[in-house]
Specification:
The complex is a heterodimer of chains A (334) and B (356). In chain A, a hairpin with a 5-residue loop joins strand 4 and strand 5. Helices cover 25% and strands 28% of the residues of chain A. In chain A, helix 1 packs across helix 4 and helix 4 crosses helix 8. In chain A, strands 1, 2, 3, 10, 11, 12, 13, 14, 15, 16 and 17 form an eleven-stranded mixed beta sheet that branches. A six-stranded antiparallel beta barrel of chain A has the order 4-5-8-7-6-9. Chain A starts with a helix and ends in a 6-residue tail after the last helix. Chain B has nine helices and 17 strands. In chain B, the strands form three sheets. In chain B, strands 1-2-12-3-13-16-14-15 form an eight-stranded mixed beta sheet, sandwiched between helices. In chain B, strands 4-5-8-7-6-9 form a six-stranded antiparallel beta barrel. In chain B, strand 6 and strand 7 form a beta hairpin. In chain B, helix 7 crosses helix 9. The chains are: A alpha+beta (334), B alpha+beta (356).
């Protein structure tokens, strides 16, 4: 699975511009499903038909990561930008970004801003592609870039700039791999969604199109295990997959969560319960689609979400795959 | 078909704040009815016009939207002394409100937003921006009763302003008026309906865009288009600015229709952006790109309806947007209509496919 995670985290994809990661994922799931569809917003929906008598189950993980879009190229070739999704200004300064064509740049700060006096703002930052004049710069207004550190596996800890949510995508690809050759009753819609970080948007239309009987989003969540973590949170890296009770966008379907916990208990999968106070996932959009859909989320505990170096624990990732596999292997899910 | 500037003048002068677009809708309906197959008004007041295409089946269903509503205010209280309290409808910079002439209600009762005389203001008071809650409107009444005979709580009002031609020079034709956002888009859309296209068109003149893209959401659900273009009057902040300032304006007047790559509500479908670029190239229309990350439009609501709609936004640069006196260049307006018409001639299913 490490190599899968490496491939997914290496691929370029920012909200609204997921072409590259989508084609990487498409290649990964080729042969693992009966049908694949890309919709108007760029969601990649993969259908694995069941034997019948089961439910329409939707699993969603988002392909896009946060990033930036060039809004002005100045006379000297510095690239001023606007954010795509939520960027912490503090985490941008001095970081390295990569454009879709592979060009890299460093995020600099306007010299008039004194970072010791006040927190710098994104509008005071620019990307420096190392040019010595405007003529050398090929980037233009509208070009997009992401923070992009290479994937590193270090003991049980996996590092990348975009664990949010390439790790969720990896979980779903791995699930499809492990289900190969196995018969399940349910029609499984595995959706690699687009534009979560600016909405969620992709999930809105995907849920409408599929109209599932139940849905589980797979995304990262915060942890409470860092120094003076605020607000306090019970979720810790390494203690298993997190079952989301609620976050700032939605309250999970209690019945679905009970089924997940019972499944985890009988399959011996370690899990923890999650209440997230700042943030939400595709589940927020899916839950209120059409007449409403029983929805919850399974989360990968992750430190430093929306910062350039995000960490998840291999054991939590494996637990997520194991729980999902046990869950969808049941004749009924809800 | 009525000339574009004449359309803009009549639409700009008309009264139509978010939630009370009736007069604008009537004007538009009269204008377009001879040129479309069918017209509907839905539960929220959107005006939907259907025009069958001339191409062979299966024909693409394309929605073009422009919103009829303008920002304004609503009367919330009538005070004992006869002056009115207000609440803003849509987003208006509070700094533009003091001392403005207003028109209230169906009867268009004239009044003014009260302003303190400078003689009585301290230095601090002069630079403080007053909250909408502390503003009042004077309709020239001496008592609550007298004011109540002219206006009611719940009456809508707009900033009063008449359309004016600033320059008739064909090299730089400029006009001034209120509500160019989005009567400019409405004018362009009306003129586009003047002829036929290969594709099936749904022209949605929407309501309540300024208070949350509300009309567009239901209009798109009803019409279920396969692609959508929103025509907007958009931010133009090219002036005043020092000549040598190293800054990209949101849009520049005279630089043509502005394509949105990304605003706060939508990331435009890249295939549609490429289509618009190809149409511009083919027609020799100069285009610009709106600075990303600003504003929201009907496409923000439309693209998320049902199973999703490929959507894009074309903006007509309007200086001093959301104020009683916007300025636009009539060539930008005409070229926006031309660009969209050209795109409608070229658009095919291929443009709507996503790469990857």
């Amino acid at each position: 699975m490490i190599e899968l995670v490496r491939r997914l985290t290496d691929a370029f994809g920012v909200s609204g511009y997921e072409d590259q990661i989508r084609s990487v994922i498409r290649a990964e799931v080729e042969g693992l499903a009966d049908e694949m569809r890309v919709d108007a917003l760029g969601n990649l929906a993969v259908l694995r038909r069941g034997t019948g008598g089961g439910q329409k189950v939707m699993l969603a993980a988002h392909m896009d990561q946060i990033g930036l879009m060039v809004s002005h190229v100045d006379d000297r070739g510095y690239l001023w930008f606007t954010s795509i999704g939520y960027l912490y200004a503090l985490a941008c300064w001095g970081g390295q970004v990569r454009f879709a064509d592979g060009t890299v740049g460093t995020v600099g700060l306007d010299g008039r801003v004194n970072p010791t006096k006040a927190l710098p703002a994104l509008r005071d930052m620019y990307v420096d592609v190392g040019a010595t004049g405007r003529a050398e710069v090929k980037q233009k207004v509208g070009d997009v870039a992401v923070f992009s550190l290479p994937f590193v596996a270090q003991g049980d800890a996996w590092f990348a700039s975009n664990m949010d949510d390439r790790i969720g995508c990896a979980v779903l690809v791995q699930l499809l791999r492990e289900l190969r050759g196995q018969e399940i009753t349910h029609d499984l819609y595995v959706v690699f969604t687009a534009q979560e970080e600016v909405g969620p948007r992709g999930a809105v239309v995907s849920a409408y199109a599929i109209d599932p009987d139940l849905a589980i989003a797979v995304d990262v969540t915060d942890t409470g295990d860092t120094p003076h973590a605020s607000p306090p949170m019970e979720v810790h890296m390494g203690r298993g997959v997190a079952i989301k009770v609620q976050d700032s966008g939605m309250i999970s379907h209690a019945g679905l969560n009970r089924r997940l916990m019972a499944t985890a208990d009988s399959a011996g999968v370690p899990y923890q319960l999650e209440v997230l106070q700042g943030g939400t996932t595709d589940a927020y959009s899916i839950q209120v689609s059409r007449q409403g859909i029983p929805t919850t989320a399974l989360s990968l505990p992750s430190r430093y979400i929306h910062a350039p170096s995000q960490i998840v624990d291999r054991r939590d990732v494996e637990a997520a795959v194991a729980l999902l596999r046990a869950f969808v292997s049941q004749p009924t899910c809800i | 078909m009525t000339e574009l500037s004449d359309l803009l003048e009549r639409l700009s002068n008309e009264f139509g704040p978010s939630g009370q677009e009736r007069k604008v809708r009537t004007l538009i309906r009269d204008e377009i009815s001879p040129h479309v197959d069918r017209v509907e008004v839905d539960a929220l007041g959107n005006l939907l016009a259907y025009k069958q295409g001339t191409g062979p089946e299966p024909r693409l269903r394309v929605m073009l939207s422009a919103h009829m509503d303008e920002v304004g205010f609503m009367v919330t209280r009538i005070e004992k002394g006869g002056h009115l309290r207000l609440r803003l409808v849509g987003s208006i910079d509070k700094r533009v409100l003091l001392a403005k002439r207003v028109l209230i209600g169906e009867a268009q009762i004239p009044g003014v937003i009260c302003s303190p005389p400078p003689h009585l203001q301290s230095a601090e008071q002069r630079v403080k921006v007053l909250d909408a809650d502390t503003l009042a409107i004077d309709v020239g009444a001496s008592s609550e009763k007298e004011a109540g005979a002219k206006v009611k709580v719940g009456d809508y009002g707009v900033l009063a302003s008449r359309y004016v031609t600033l320059s008739a020079d064909p090299r730089w034709p400029t006009v001034r008026g209120k509500a160019f956002d989005d009567r400019a888009g409405c004018s362009a859309l009306i003129s586009i309906l003047g002829r036929s296209y290969p594709v099936d068109l749904i022209a949605a003149f929407t309501v309540q865009e300024e208070v949350g893209l509300r009309g567009a959401r239901v209009a798109a659900y009803r019409a279920a288009p396969e692609a959508a273009f929103a025509l907007e009057g958009t931010i133009c902040d090219d002036t005043p600015a020092p000549e040598d300032e190293d800054r990209t304006a949101v849009t520049r007047m005279g630089d043509g229709p502005a394509l949105t790559l990304m605003d706060r509500s939508v990331v435009s479908h890249p295939g549609m952006t490429r289509l618009l670029e190809a149409a511009a190239e083919a027609q020799g229309i100069k285009i610009q790109y709106k600075a990303p990350g600003l504003g929201s439009t009907d496409s923000g609501a439309i693209h998320l309806t049902r199973a999703g709609v490929p959507a894009s936004v074309i903006g007509i640069p309007c200086r001093y947007i959301h104020s009683p006196a916007s300025i636009l260049n009539l060539d930008d307006l005409a070229n926006t209509a031309r660009l969209v018409a050209a795109a409608l001639e070229l658009i095919s299913q291929q443009d709507l496919v996503r790469q990857g």
